[in-house]
Structures are given as C-alpha cells and as structure tokens.
Amino acid sequence: MDRAEIVDGPKPKHAQLRDILRRAAEQELPPGSPIPSERDLARQYRVSRITVRAAVGQLVAEGLLTRAKGRGTFTARRRMDVQLYLESFTDDMRRRGLSPATEVLSCGEEEPPPAASAALGLGQHERACRLVRLRRADGVPLAVERGWYSPRVVPGLHGHDLTTSLYALIADTYGVQLDHAGQTVWAEGADPETAKLLGVRTGSPLLVFRRVAGSRGRPVEDMTSWYRGDLYQVTMQLDRTDPESGPHRSHKGGTP
Length: 256
What we know:
The protein is an alpha+beta fold. The protein folds into 2 domains: 13-75, Winged helix-like DNA-binding domain superfamily/Winged helix DNA-binding domain (Arc Repressor Mutant, subunit A, Orthogonal Bundle), CATH 1.10.10; 80-234, Chorismate lyase, CATH 3.40.1410.10. It is built from 7 helices and 10 strands. The strands form 3 sheets. The protein has a 6-stranded antiparallel β-sheet. Strands 1-2 form a two-stranded antiparallel sheet. α1 packs across α3 and α2 (38-45) crosses α3. The longest helix has 16 residues, at 13-28. The chain starts with 12 loop residues before the first helix and ends in a 22-residue tail after the last strand. Residues 247-256 have low confidence and may be disordered.
C-alpha cells in the first residue's frame, strides 16, 4: 500500500487517509484483498483509530471496501455493467467468461397481481406461470428474479427445465423470439428474504429492474429482478436529441 505520510494541513487527516486507501483499492489491490486492521493503519500512518474508522467508513459507503463480520475489511468486487440490450443472464455471464448457474426457487400457475395481469394482457382471474429464480456467476449470488409468463404464448412453461437460459428455451420450445421490451429501473433496500438469498444484509442497496418483454407485439414476460448494488452498475449513452423532432435515443440499461 501507499507509504505516503499524513501531515497536518488544510486537508483533514481522515480525507488524506481515505485518498491513500482509495488508490490502493482502485489501483494496487485485487478485488477481495484484505486491508490492514484499524490498529495497524493507525500505527502505520500515525493517526487515531477514530480517523481510520472515518476514512474506511466513507469507502465502505462508496462501495470500494466491504466489511465481513469477524474477518475484517476487504477491497470490494468490481461492479459489472448492466447490458444495454435484450440478452439472457446465461449468455451475458458466459460472454464475460463467468460460469452461470440458476436455482429455481418456485414455479407454478397462479393468478397474477393486477399490474402483471394488465402487462400480459390477461383476462380477469386468468392464471399465468409465476417463476422465481436465483442467479449466480462463479458461485456468487447476483440476482433474484420474480417473473410472470403468458399462458397464451408459452403454455405449460412450468413443466420445463428452467435452470438454463429461459430465452433460449422459449425460442427453441415455442418458436418465440423475444424482440422488444420496456424496462424501468430503480433502487431499493433489500428486504429480509431477498437479502438472505443474495447473501447481503437487510437494507443493502439493490438495483431493481422491471421488464415487460414480448414478441411480435405479444406480451410474454413481466419480470422484476433484484441485483446486488455492490456488484452491478448501469451505464447509459445519452444523446442531445430533441424529443419533439425525432426519437429519443437515450439507452436504458437492460438486465442481462
């Protein structure tokens, strides 16, 4: 780590130490590396442990460091960019060189809530396939998906193996290629159930994506995904396009 000295001056000591630790986390240490203990940092840089605690706490809040109870503080895993096109989680992870895995938590025919029923164009009390899955990459839980699927387009979906690429299954089994989607993204804290599935604390930041996807104008899927905020980010390319004179070309992040 940086051996720079912390000196008295206009810049607070905790801010100086924060910058030293940030450089280490971003440039020197690989993801998952331990950083020295509060006691060791205080001794090395000749500052109080309160100063160390303030510097480390700010970097934890920024997502550059992460604390593991009883183990210490570590550099965080690098965030992955959410892709800006309609692609399955399985294909996305393989393209990144990661090994995808899917666990089906529940699946069956149920009556969807009004919002999902309307999105899929279903009649009153018409049932649909409800699918809940946990998605992992290289063994690390990344996302929980809770989705509804149209019985008119993909009847009997719950009877298939849903531990692989769902989009590939729908294309191969039903001859349906999802070709369009509308998506809304927001942030929320993890509820106890989702936090347990993702291996994070209750209240941890999550990126939430609600996607309604279809094929040839027919709605097929209404899925909401909860992604770990410490491992994912959204990048968008914005163009200065007048919405009155042409289509708005800002890209909205899509869940992989």
